[in-house]
Structure formats: C-alpha cells, structure tokens
Amino acid sequence: MKALRWTLFLTLMIWSGAWAQITITAGDYDLGIGTTRTHYELSSFDGSGFSVNVGTTGGPQTWIFNESTYPGGESLSLDVLDPAATPFASEFPNANHSWFFGSDSADLYTFLEANSNGVYSQGFAAVTDSGNYVEPSVPAEQVFKFPASLNDTWNSVTVERFSVPGFEIVDSTVIDHTIDAWGTVELPAGSFPALRARLNETSYSLTIVNGTVIFADTTVSITYDFFTNQGPGFLGSVSSLNGETNPNFTTGEYLAFLTNIQTTGIENQGRVLASGFELSQNYPNPFNPSTRIAYTLPAAAEVELSVYNLAGQLVSTLVAGRQSAGTHEVSFAADNLPSGVYFYRLHSGAVELTQKMILLR
User: Fold this and answer.
1) What is the C-alpha separation between 132 and 327, in angstroms, rounded?
2) Domain map of the chain by residue range?
3) What's the rounded Cα separation, in Å, for the pair 300 and 277?
4) I need a labelling partner for 130 at 20 to 30 A (CA). Which of 62, 178, 235, 337 fits?
5) In this structure, what are the phi and psi dihedrals at residue 315, rounded to the nearest 5 degrees?
6) How many Cα atoms within 13 Å fall on the side-chain side of residue 192?
7) Whole-number mean pLDDT of the chain?
8) Angle at CA 41, nearest 5°, toward 20 and 82?
9) Are 317 and 330 contacting, i.e. CB atoms less than 8 angstroms apart?
C-alpha cells in the first residue's frame, strides 16, 4: 500500500511566493495527461529504516526533501496516460487518468478518478512475464478530498478477497486521514505552499477455512503525505516502520518526493495483452484429489501447461506440445501432494498466464 500510494499523485507546477495556510479545491487539480514525472524514492523494507524529520502538528512549518539529505535512493519516472490509451480501459470505466510505470519484467498501471469530491483510486492492473492481472479497489479508495484545509478528516476502506467454497483469504485496510499541519515543502524543483495529511493505517489479514479463522494478523503504521494547491498537488510522502504509533516518529520505512515534471505527449508503449489466450479457473476449487483445467488458444500453437508449488518448484507438466485453436481441458491428479496452494501456468511463445488453486485434504 505504501509504495503503491506514491503512484497515485506525482505532479506539480513550479511556483514560488510567500505562503499562508491554504485550501486545496477540485479546480486546483490537473489530471496531467501527457506528462512524465521523475521522482526520488528511498525504501527500507527490511526493518532497519532511516532517519526522518516529519515535523509536528500546526504551522507554519518547513519540510525539506532532497537527495543529499536522504542518500541511497533511486530516480524513477511515471507517465500519466488517458485510460483509453491503456490495455485495461474497459476494466476501469470511471477512471479519468492513469499512472504508468514500465520495467523489464512488468508494466504497471494505477487507475484514478478525480471529481468534485476528491481523488479516488479505482485499482491497478499489470502486464507481466507471467500473465495479465487486474485488481479493482472495492470500494474505490478516496486518497484525497476536495475542498481540503487544516483539520479536515476522511477515511477509506479497501477489501481484497480470494474466496472459493470452504476457503477464504480476506485482506482489508482502514486508513483515517487528517490534515494536521501546514507550511512549506522545499524540493529540488522549488518551494511550495503545502498541507500535511496524516494517514493512520491499519491492515488486517484473515485466513478462513470452513467458517473458522485459522490465521489472523494486524499491522499499524503512519504515513504523511504533502499536498500543494499548485497543479495536481502531490509533493511527497513519508511512511513509518510497521507497528509505529508515535506521530513524531524519527525512523522511516519509505520516502518519495517529486524532482521534475515535463510534458511529453507520451503514448502507451507497454506490453501487449495476451489477447485471445484464456486460462480458466480450475474446477472444482478447492479440490481433492483431482481437478480440471481449461484453456483457450486463438490459433494453433506450441503450448506448455505446468503446475508449481509455492516455492516455485515444478510439480507436474500437464501439456507440452502443439495444440489446435479452440478450448482444451486437462485433468490434474494430486494424489501424492500435500494440502496447500499451487499455481498452474500456461506458456505459449511470449504469452504466460497464471492461476492459483487450492488442494484441501
């Protein structure tokens, strides 16, 4: 959630002056389509952390973010796209802008809707070497409100479920937002009037088998996001280590801030979706001891269908060879395997699709 939140806003317009307490309205927000944002990112997810100075409540205050103060990070760029120019436009019909980040192994898209009430995350999608993934936010997560000024509050709740008969994993996150400070944020790009939003985040994870909770975990953390009324508004973010309850924490786990913005008129240059290839959910699921797996090919092709355990070890190769166009179905027998989660992968040329299945003894 922390790193993903940074992709929700990374844009501003350079402006300077004498700051006072500000209000941010919907009219201050620019979708920014056709721009590229470069930002500096530092993370320490191993628990060691790094020193930060988040300031206190109230104002006026000054927050300084630059590479020399926070060494060891890296520079990353994000493109802002029209959702219609992405491969997932039909999956997120309410989005009016999308953040795109491409790497050697994946193309990542975050879909956003800005309206008169605020900015909402509609979810994310990816095209990866192992398949295509779509993860809507249900309900949409409100990441900022309009208008916003000191002492304003709002909250957001997201729930992710993986559910089959007799088995369910539920991950939920509750975030309470409070705008608790104001002042000036100094970045490599310039100085900006800003509001600071405090996010108290509580995440819950439950694993349920036949109506009984067999695993439960709760984590808490604090994040500070900094917004301006110049341009789209997001300037930077600082997150605490997990378990932190002190609002004046001095050790951070994640930090990001904007260093540059340019208009590029970029088009989506991402990977091509595996159009026409389909890998269905196995049935039954969970299963014991056998299940059926169906897949569809748009044309005759060389195909490999394999099963892997959670450690990534090959368990079984179900299909290996040339297959005709159309829908095919194979059986998978797990008589000698232990209960657990397994993955099955369809590989054909540059296409790889993956699904999850559960063996319950």
Assistant:
1) 19
2) 2-263, 278-359
3) 11
4) 337
5) -100, -45
6) 29
7) 85
8) 80
9) no
What's the distance, CA 121 to chain centroid? Answer: 9
Angle CA 20–22–28, to nearest 5: 135
pLDDT given at position 68: 92
Residue with tokens 């099963």: 307
- In this prediction, residue 316 has a pLDDT band, given cuts at 50, 70 and 90, of very high
pLDDT attached to residue 357? 84
The band of 340, judged by pLDDT with boundaries at 50, 70 and 90, is confident
SS3 91: helix
CATH 2.60.40.1930: does it fit domain 278-359?
Answer: yes
H/E stretch holding 106 reads strand 106-115
User: Residue 195 corresponds to which amino acid?
Assistant: L
Tell me how far apart the alpha carbons of residues 247 and 33 are, in angstroms, rounded to a whole number: 35
Count CA atoms closer than 13 A to 129's CA, side-chain side.
3
Bridge partners of residue 254, in order along the sequence: 43, 239
So what's the pLDDT on residue 9?
A: 38
Nearest to 172 by CA among 186, 161, 184: 161
